């Protein structure tokens, strides 16, 4: 089975993405290509990271031409906003999710393994481990939504059900969100076809009307409740240990954080919004 790796990124995360690429090249095997999915304006910057197995993909080649990026006046043009009469205004994190889904229609691999820009691989990892025969690993935290959860996860799960035409009374108890996750290409394609058939519109347009969504929740509920888990096996282990909240860790705290990785974890992630300098992370992990 063939597995590609994909990272949706942007200029503000370039140095983090560079570190991801360096650690991935050192530790990860068993994949075909590593795709960097970026906005048109960022293509030339990210070309620096291309090599024999890494290629930059312009979002213009993935998303509909009617969805266009503009400088966001609320940030004095430092960030971008995606506008169209067909959708609500979208931020970069919305469009990055759409790129991840859209890639499936442009490659022929059996699966896509997604790695965020703020990830650094610290241990060897073979992408072939994502497979059990012809079944692909699906990250699922069983019953997680039955407990108090932060942020909008319950809303994301409910909106995923609405997008997929699942009975609103059928609420999922599971959380599918993770930093290193894998999805089947054929499932992604049939998922988009289902959304378009149900809503009589392009899947990007349907998601863009909702705005409050998680691609992980959409795929997870589709795989479990529409496909009835065919082609998948469940695993609750987060392959990446993530430092989520500010303040940024001290050097001692960071080393302790790495030391506490479980045997099955192969990478760490430092959320960009907590203010950890990438050069400092590089120094601490020996890159």
UniProtKB/TrEMBL annotation:
Highest rank taxon of the organism: Bacteria
Alphabetical list of InterPro entries matching this protein: DUF6492
One Pfam family from the record: DUF6492
The protein's name: Glycosyl transferase
Lineage: Bacteria, Pseudomonadati, Pseudomonadota, Alphaproteobacteria, Hyphomicrobiales
